[in-house]
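Hi support team,

I've been running sequence recovery on a batch of backbones for a student project. Most finish fine, but this one hangs at about 90% for roughly twenty minutes before it completes. I'm not sure whether the input is malformed or the queue is just slow. I've pasted the structure tokens below so you can try to reproduce it. Let me know if you need the job ID as well.

Thanks,
M.K.
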């Protein structure tokens, strides 16, 4: 996930959770499990969700809208 995001110009922040916080984070991610990527506060999912966005050409526009990359 980090490599793909870096390749499109984004530099993600990784947040490691304590075991007790993992359930809360997984619920906030819509049950997609962990690790989960959030872009602009929206849960994208894990690697499969990220790759799906990328292959459909929607990843970079989403990152641009969130201010995570610049033109």
């Amino acid at each position: 996930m980090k490599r793909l995001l870096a390749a499109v110009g984004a530099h993600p922040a990784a947040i490691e959770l304590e075991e007790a916080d993992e359930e809360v984070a997984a619920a906030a991610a819509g049950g997609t499990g962990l690790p989960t990527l959030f872009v602009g506060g929206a849960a994208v999912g894990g690697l499969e969700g990220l790759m799906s966005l990328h292959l459909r050409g929607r990843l970079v526009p989403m990152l641009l809208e969130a201010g995570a990359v610049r033109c």
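--
Follow-up from support: It reproduced on our side and the slowdown came from queue contention, not your input. The longest strand covers residues 42-45. No action needed from you.
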